[in-house]
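Record type: ASSEMBLY
Status: queued
Input:
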Amino acid sequence: MPVWVQVAYLVCAVGFILALKGLSGPRTARTGNLIGAVAAVVGCAIPFFYLDLHHVPLILAAIVVGAAGGFVGARRVQMTQMPQMVALFNGVGGGAAALVALLELRELVAADEFAGSVPWFTLLATAFTILVGSVSFAGSVITFLKLQELMTSRPVVFPGLPVVFGLGLLAAVVLAVVTVVNPAEPVGVVLALVGLLIGVLLVLPVGGADVPIVISLLNAFTGLTVAAGGYVLGNTLLLVAGTLVGASGTFLTRLMASAMGRSVANILFGALKGGSTLGAGEASDRPVRSAGPEDVAILLEYADRVIVVPGYGLAVAQAQHTLRELVDVLGEKGVKVDYAIHPVAGRMPGHMNVLLAEAQVPYEQLVEMDDINGDFKNTDVVVVVGANDVVNPAAKTTPGAPIYGMPILNADEAQQIVFLKRSMRPGFAGIENELLFDPKTTLLFGDAKETLGKLLNAVKAL
Amino acid sequence: MNESVTLLTIFVLSVFVGIEVISKVSSTLHTPLMSGANAIHGIILLGAIIVTGSTDNAVAVVVGVVAIVLAAVNMVGGFVVTDRMLQMFTRKKPAKKVDA
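Status: finished
Output:
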């Protein structure tokens, strides 16, 4: 490898570090992402200039096809569907890494027969890439299917699942050892198939609300896979980039899990230990107090302090813009209004911030949970729009509830609570919310966008 | 220095850098950060290009081409979708003026 190539890879690696650094602050995030994109494009162009690559037209055509597919998908996806899009992009990356490692194994087998001198660690790294890349691919596909609701988003458990899973892991270890001792392509292919099985079994038992954490975890897996692939190919750029993603992804996964008051192990294997993440998922017919938009308008008009708790349902109804108008009008009438953002509001951590940013809500009005939780007791009205689990007191009061231990927004401490709901159906976690039956609570039934529109008109008319 | 050890050194140092650079991220940016990191591992495209370009076996070329397509989807899609999200975070100010 010429020196200029190594230096160029180093420059690209630094680009990725700057990209991640930039992405962790709101002001630098977009620049960071652009730096990352430039580094990636430059990195991929390098081999064309120093290697005598075969099939160049074919390679370029494949890049164009993939790039066009990714571009169109990325432009068209709705912000509400972001989690499944990230899952899908992650899965194809993992799949690509596994395929690259399979091809590299072929080369190594040939080299081994010829000279018999392939280091065992290289073979082990190859086996790791094949296995974990396949796990990431299959796991991400299942995640996608769950989030897109092409299959049930509830945990899927069948008797013997832990046994099959355990056997799969055992088979993976044995096959990896075989790859090291006596490398052969068919072993690699079987290892990939075992990886696919493990990936499916890993994600099936995870309940809907926890799926986003799994996306982050699989993201870290793919990163490590790419790092191992870089080791096998002796490519420092792949090694650094993959490791960065693997390390930061693992860290991020732990951050998110702790925001939900859960451990990663509990999220992955909780359902296997006795169905504790299974909510009833059914609507109750207990009596509740409901009201019309005019009554709620009066309530809001006479309030001094209002907190809005937005949830995924708001975005599904595409009601963010109407909500922002309502908040603006109330603001003009002298009511102090903030949005309380739970760290896992929406369907992935930070998702709600993206959804409200789409509706051009100024981010000074978005207050994070820890900063606003003390304010609820001095708040006249809390308006919960399309959210449920993040204000469910069961998280504090009911040990054994699937969300028990998750920090929640203290909406129950406010003077009045208004829920905008389409129906009495429970939230993503599939459990009933006691707060709906609280004497302080008023329900306003209907589609979020329509109801907010009526509420807006009623407030304007006062 | 042994090449394997050099690579291992790079790996270990990168782990620390990876954790260090994102240790202070606010939860506001979790989604774009996850998506941006996702795009970065699309660099496996580089590996896919190298392995595909250095074989002449028909089956291997087909597998390689599939890997290239998948990796390109990951890389390009990841960066574009992250930019779309971040664009919304940054166009706050003009939007506020329109409201006022």
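Annotation: The helical segments of chain B are 3-21, 30-40, 44-53, 58-90, 92-99.
Annotation: Chain B has one domain: 27-99.
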